[in-house]
Specification:
The complex is a heterodimer of chains A (252) and B (88).
Chain A lengths: L12 E12 L2 E7 L11 E7 L5 E7 L8 E7 L5 H9 L5 E8 L13 E6 L3 H13 L6 E7 L8 H10 L3 E7 L16 H7 L8 E7 H13 L7 E6 L7
Chain B lengths: L6 E2 L4 H8 L7 E4 L5 E3 L4 E3 L5 E4 L6 E7 L4 E5 L2 E5 L4
Antiparallel strand pairs in B: 1-4, 2-3, 2-8, 4-5, 5-6, 6-7
The chains are: A alpha/beta (252), B mainly beta (88).
Chain lengths: 252, 88
């Protein structure tokens, strides 16, 4: 497209629900088929638009959970209390339904193997969704970039993609996974049990002198705390990429 | 100003694309107040004002405001001195 000045529209298209995966009682992955989908980079998001019978529309952004794979588009949605879009997507959507989406959107919070590493992925709550897309892409591409994945959830039930993460960390020596539970944990839990703090980052994240490329995603307060701590530890601010979703949270 | 109310410029990627016909999230802009340069995806976005208020992540100065009305979307450029729009 170099040299052209065509103003392109980011147009809405329809996508059909082909599979619903309950990740836990409050989080559901939605597998869509989107005809004409031209692919995306991990870390990008889509806008989803719902239209009621009376014409009322509501729109939210959701991170793509899987790397590009033809017309297959996957988002993972967390139920937000009183969230008008997430409630519909998590509790009412059925296989065969058609919804409107547009995207992919975002060129900042994205990773491709050519960007290198070592990669530090840090997620809070459902902020792990775009990080998982990055991790899955790295694995699917057969890339060897070393990755440290650190995520925080309130309880064991809130951890997303647990089985897949365990499997990856057991089979790929380039991937280290550390999960922390902040509210309660099962008796057999042997990981950390507090919020991500400087001590935890110093123990589990890449040292600053490795010049890691870092992606932090989660609620606003989480991202603020983690990213400023990383910079205090000597991380290059230009290599700490952040993505926040609000405390009322129906935006991803 | 440290608070939990803001999102970041990534969340306006769709709106900015609508306005400018281009994904602006990786495009770097300069704050006329403090001189910081940041990708628009890394700016702070406040949604609780009427419209979208985009602030500098370094000094919190207002870079840009977008207000939607039924017939137009008014884009006010405040402290956004320049933005380098990438050529795709």
């Amino acid at each position: 497209m170099a040299g052209t000045a065509v103003r392109r529209r980011l147009s809405w298209s329809t996508a059909e629900v082909v599979e619903l995966i309950d990740e836990n009682p409050r989080v559901r992955s939605i597998v869509l088929t989107c005809p004409g989908w031209e692919g995306h980079s991990p870390g990008q998001h889509v806008d989803i638009r719902l239209t009621a019978e009376d014409g009322y529309q509501a729109q939210r952004s959701y991170s793509l959970a899987e790397p590009a794979d033809g017309e297959r588009v996957v988002i993972t949605v967390e139920l937000v209390r009183d969230g008008e879009v997430s409630t519909f997507l998590v509790e009412e959507l059925r296989v065969g339904d058609v919804i409107e989406l547009r995207g992919p959107i975002g060129r900042y919070f994205v990773w491709e193997p050519s960007h290198g590493g070592p990669l530090q992925l840090i997620g809070g709550g459902s902020g792990v969704v775009p990080l998982m897309a990055i991790l899955r892409h790295r694995v699917r591409e057969g890339d060897q970039t070393p990755v440290r994945y650190l995520s925080s959830a309130r309880t064991n039930d809130d951890l997303l993609y647990r089985v897949e993460l365990d499997d990856l960390s057991n089979t790929d020596p380039g991937i280290t996974v550390v999960l922390t539970l902040t509210r309660s944990h099962p008796p057999e839990w042997d990981g950390p049990t507090r919020r991500i703090d400087r001590e935890m980052l110093e123990e589990y994240a890449w040292p600053a002198d490795e010049n890691p490329l870092c992606f932090v995603c989660g609620p606003t307060g989480f991202v603020e705390t983690v990213s400023s701590t990383l910079v205090d530890m000597g991380y290059d601010p230009g290599r700490v990429k952040t993505e926040r979703f609000g405390p009322t949270g129906d935006t991803r | 100003m440290s608070d939990d109310r803001h999102l970041d410029g990534n969340s306006l990627g769709g709106l900015l694309y609508d306005l400018f016909g281009h994904d602006m999230t990786a495009d770097v802009g300069r704050c006329a107040n403090c001189g910081a340069t940041n990708p628009l995806g890394a700016t702070r976005v406040y949604l609780d004002a009427p419209g979208y208020v985009i602030r500098c992540p370094a000094c919190q100065g207002v870079l840009m405001v977008v207000v939607e009305t039924p017939r137009t979307r008014r884009v006010s450029f405040e402290l956004l001195r320049w933005v380098d729009i990438g050529i795709e």
